[in-house]
Design a protein that fits this description.
Elements: H1 18-24, E1 31-32, E2 35-45, H2 64-70, H3 74-80, H4 88-95, E3 124-125, E4 148-149, H5 159-164, H6 176-187, E5 192-197, E6 205-214, E7 231-234, E8 237-238, E9 241-242, E10 246-253, E11 256-259, E12 262-270, E13 273-288, E14 294-304, H7 305-314, H8 319-322, H9 326-336, E15 339-341, E16 348-365, E17 372-373, H10 377-384
Parallel strand pairs: 1-17, 3-4, 7-16
Antiparallel strand pairs: 2-5, 2-16, 5-6, 6-10, 8-9, 10-11, 11-13, 12-13, 13-14, 14-16, 15-16, 16-17
């Protein structure tokens, strides 16, 4: 799936031949036919970025560090920053505690009042129409300005991009997501498995079930650190049941999986922070490569404001490289939240969002009898015809 023609967030698939797929199948794996398995290898905010940052006409946001040193007297500024020679990381523990009583302003974002956050002002975004045309009238969403998708789709909802798209650290060249993806690759925490069951035809099937799990195994990599398809991954279990196990319905058309909206819990780990992320009305659009060894796509749904702020406030000293400001993000997130109004206050509690991802095929190992689920030989045999 081509998400854009000019943004650095365009995802590209992997190329391989059917012969390699068959050779890579583990000889001892007993893959269940009718099931496809994948492990997500990259997960990024669906952020449409132009070359000259036209989507942020007032520029990128000021970070907490600048708010801190601009609030100091000149003598204190010279002393505490060593005349500007002390790095942002070295200044972090002073700068972050700029509340009136020394509060950490990321852990206590209401301790100070800062200038408003600069939001994305562009008309285009990566994402999906999550609330339909009558979302506000039906009470499913709050009034908000919608985007046009980069493929021309009308009514795209992506308030998370509007919120973070002009924050340096959350852009494609920032450190937040680069660290997240590298953390998961190196330590195996927060890895998401996608299992598609009830598959009669891997290229076209009108009714399948999509399950989401957490892996307890590290990625299978080659000697150069590249992700290898057909690795085996055990599901995280607790008291005999998967710790994660959300399911949604879906269909496959010409190798493209789409799902109906559903409430989905996904594991997350990044920047030394682990959390369960509940996505409401999550839907998936994933293109499976012709030989079945990789996939790429988009996940769109609503992320809770509280979940987001827990993470933003937990990044810690990495804030020194993000040039972000928790208090401004906190205020703006609550102001532009567009999903799931609180029945008592009417204020929306979630932010529409979109994420782009890559994945490679996987054998998903269930606890009972070490049953595996993945791209079975029967399904792969059907894919071989593509290369004739």
């Amino acid at each position: 799936m081509k998400l854009s023609s000019g943004t650095p967030r365009v995802i590209h698939g992997f190329a391989a031949c059917a012969a390699v797929v068959l050779l890579c199948l583990p000889a001892t794996a007993s893959a269940q036919q009718g099931t496809l398995g994948f492990v997500i290898t990259l997960w990024n905010l669906g952020s449409y970025e132009t070359r000259f940052v036209d989507e942020c006409p007032e520029g990128l946001n000021v970070g907490y560090d600048e708010y801190w040193w601009r609030g100091l007297s000149k003598p204190d500024r010279a002393t505490l920053t060593e005349n500007g020679l002390k790095s942002r990381l070295q200044r972090y523990f002073n700068a972050i505690r700029r509340g009136p009583n020394g509060e950490d302003v990321c852990m206590n974002p209401t301790a100070v009042t800062d200038p408003p956050l600069l939001l994305v002002e562009g008309d285009k975004a990566i994402g999906m129409d999550l609330d339909d045309k009558d979302g506000v009238a039906a009470g499913r969403s709050c009034p908000h300005r919608e985007f046009t998708g980069i493929d021309g789709t009308a009514g795209v909802d992506n308030q998370l991009y509007r919120l973070l798209g002009c924050v340096y650290g959350f852009r494609s060249y920032g450190q937040v997501e680069a660290n997240e993806n590298e953390n998961r690759k190196s330590n195996g925490k927060g890895m998401t498995l996608i299992e598609i069951t009830g598959v009669d035809d891997p290229r076209n099937d009108p009714d399948v079930t999509v399950n989401f799990y957490r892996s307890i195994d590290l990625y299978t990599l080659d000697g150069s650190g590249r992700f290898l398809p057909h690795g085996s991954y055990r599901i995280d279990m607790y008291n005999g049941k998967p710790r994660y196990g959300s399911s949604v319905r879906g269909k496959i058309e010409n190798g493209v999986l789409t799902t109906t909206p559903g409430e989905v819990n996904l594991p997350f780990y990044g920047n030394y922070t682990y959390q369960n992320r509940l996505f409401r009305d999550l839907r998936l659009r994933m293109t499976i490569s012709p030989n079945g060894d990789s996939a790429e796509g988009m996940a769109a749904g609503y992320l809770g404001v509280d979940d987001l702020m827990f993470y933003v406030g937990s990044i810690g000293p990495i804030q020194s490289t993000t040039i972000s400001n928790c208090p401004s993000i906190h205020v703006a997130a609550n102001q532009i939240a567009d999903g799931h109004p609180d029945p008592k206050t009417g204020d929306c509690t979630t932010l529409s969002s979109a994420f782009v991802f890559k994945a490679v095929s996987a054998f998903i190992v269930h606890d009972k009898g070490m049953r595996t689920a993945g791209a079975g030989r029967g399904l792969l045999d059907r894919l071989k015809g593509v290369f004739k």
